[in-house]
Structure formats: structure tokens, C-alpha cells
Amino acid sequence: MTKIFAHNYNNILNDVLSYYHQTTNLLEAAAYVTWNDLIQPQNKVIQLCKEHNKPTIVVEHGMKAVSDYQKDLRDIKVNMGGKPMIADKFCVWGQKSKDILLAADIPENKVELVGSPVIWVSEYLYKNKNKESRVVPFHAGIEVVDPNTKEKWSLEGCRKHVPQYEAGNIVVFFPGHRVDEFTLQKIQLVYDQIKHRSDVFVMLSENFLNDKEDNPFRDLLKMKDVQEQRTKCIAIPTNSPQNMNFIRCLLKKTKCAISVIPGTINGICWAMNVPIITPKIDFGWRDLDDKTIYDLHEADYICDEDKVSATLDGVLSKDTKADIRKSHAIDFMGIELGDPTSNIRKVIDETILHHSGKNL
To answer: How many CB atoms within 10 Å of residue 157?
Structure first.
């Protein structure tokens, strides 16, 4: 079994890594596989790989990941955008990500189309179902309960592309994981418009598990009836192996989703044919002329930040974007590229083989 050194994030490499022997000794690894080449410690590891003649492969970890390389975009809040790619290969989810990298003058032979692991049921979960028998809630030992039927949710027992489902019965709010002051204010503004609805379920990240005064979900987290609480919200650690699996299970039961920050959740909704609302909010993305970039998509229902409730009523009355969602799922998530795990493994194996051939 080939030895590789890897950094996993967002569970994108779970299935892939099960086919290799993982080592923490870079010198004995045949390659380094990671989720980014821009920040530390990953950037430093890639620099070391270059010193020791080791091939490096980056796998796209989220739908906005490639925007860090865009020459015509700057994130003024975190000083990202326009960065150089230093890895040998970049595995992208779909053609849109590939186009962004090519526009950033990254050679085409360094960019590989593989599809998105987050829209496939994880083989890792199936192999480890006894170890990972339940979603990790923020109250240990309590099963996740269906908001409508009150039945416990279980894992799916095979690995396949998640099919599109008919509309469910709940509205799911995805506030994201950013908890800076500005974002919290926008989350509060959106949540205040929908929190009165009995069909709203909130998918929280672990960043909201606190009792701070500015936490929009403080009252939900303090509910004394835990079983009732479980029908209204759940918080799962971002790097829990079951995070994406639970999101897919949740979206099967969803009639409309709402996301504050456009990103991977939007892509999963497109792939599963779930309407999604994204309010128009300035998060600090700018073009070279310092004009605001909202990074919104035609497949979403876009509205002013104070019009979410009215937009939701309209979407629930009539959804007209199923065809656009499908085309976006193809372009951004690579749903027609086949099994991402096999595709990523092929890139890793061929990169190792090519690199070893060059060094003979």
C-alpha cells in the first residue's frame, strides 16, 4: 500500500485515504495530499516537499476554495485572492473551478476534474458504521430526531451519488460557521424573519455552541426539553466524519434552504434539487476596481437581506429553478464526472508514477 502524507479537511479525503497507508514522516511518503496550498501549515509542507522532491496534490475542499487564486478578486477582510498556486496538481470539483484556475494563469495540465466528494454518500461511514453509529450532537448520547416524524435518523448503508429527491417538509437555515461581529448581525437579521415558523430547522456549526449575548441561537441552545430542541436544531463539528452525511440526510427532507453565506451548501442543494435562498450581503469581496462582488448564482433565489421571509413564501408557492440547479450542479459540483474517490485516486497514483519516472 502506497504511503502518503495527508492533511484532511471538511472530510473530503475520508474515502480516498482508506486506500493508502498514511504516514506522518514526509521523507517516507510517496506524495503529499492536502486541501490547500496557501495557508499554514500546508504551504510550509509543500515547500518542504519541493526541497525533498515529493509531489503535491491539492483537492478542492469547498465551492469557494479556488476564488483565493482569482486575479480579479480580493477578500478585504482576510486579504485573500490573487495568490499563486504552488502545488503540482489541483483536483477541482467542476468545470467552473477549472475555468477560474485557468483564468489565473495556472497551467491546464496541473488542473484535474474529479467531481465533489461532498455529494457522494461516504464509503468511510459505511466501513466504520459501528464506530460512527450516530451523528455527534452537542449533547452526547442523544440520537438525532426527525423534525416531522420524530423518528431517529440512520446512516445510509452504501456508497453512491446522492439522487435528487422530491420536496420535503422543512425549511433549513444554514448560518455558516463565521462568527465575526458583522456576520452575526446579518445572521440575526435573517433568522429573526423566519424563527417564528414551526417548520424551520437550524443546522449549526460548533462555533455557535456558546452562551454569548450576541449568539442568535442562544435561546434554542438553552431549551430544557432536549427532545423538542432536537427537532429545531443540531450542531455538528465541521470535521466530524458525519457532518456532510447528515446534511445530505437533512436536505432529503427539505422543501427550501436558506444560506447566509454562498458556498458549498448551495452546491449540495443544487445537486439534490433543493431550492435555496441567498440574501445579497456584502462580505468584503472586491474586484480590481474596488467594486463589490456578491458571488451569487442564478440557481439561487437572491433577495435583499430584509426580504428573506417574503422570498421564502414565494419559493414555497412556486419553484421555477430546477433546471438551472441541475446545470449548476454539473458545472460547479461535477455530478456527471463519476465517482470522485476513484477520480482523485487516479490523479494521486498517476502523479506519483509520473514524478518517480522523472527522477529515474
So the answer is: 9
Contact of 184 with 216, CB cutoff 8 Å? yes
Distance of CA 274 to the CA centre of its chain: 16
- Length of the chain in terms of residues written: 360
Q: CA nearest 233: which of 256, 212, 208, 214?
A: 208
Side-chain-facing half-sphere of 114: CA atoms under 13 Å: 28
- Residues 11/122, Cβ–Cβ less than 8 Å: yes
CA–CA distance, 174 with 201 (Å, rounded to integer): 9
Question: 295-329: per-residue pLDDT in tens?
Answer: 789 999 999 999 999 999 999 999 999 999 989 99
Angle at alpha carbon of residue 239, lines to 160 and 154, rounded to 5° = 45
pTM confidence score? 0.85
Contact 141, 245 (CB under 8 A): no
Interatomic CA distance for residues 98 and 104, integer angstroms = 10
Q: In whole angstroms, what is the distance from residue 138 CA to residue 253 CA?
A: 21
Residues contacting residue 283 through CB under 8 Å, at least 6 positions apart:
77, 183, 261
Residue 339's pLDDT is 86
For cell 494521486, name the residue. Answer: 348
Condensed to tens digits (0 to 9), the pLDDT of residues 197-247 reads 988 999 988 889 888 989 999 988 888 877 777 778 888 777 777 777 778
Residue with cell 469557494: 64
Question: Please, are residues 66 and 97 in contact by the beta-carbon 8 Å criterion?
Answer: yes
Q: What CA–CA distances, in Å, run from 179 to 63, 106, 176, 206, 281?
A: 20, 33, 9, 11, 15
**Distance (Å, whole) CA 115 – CA 347:** 12
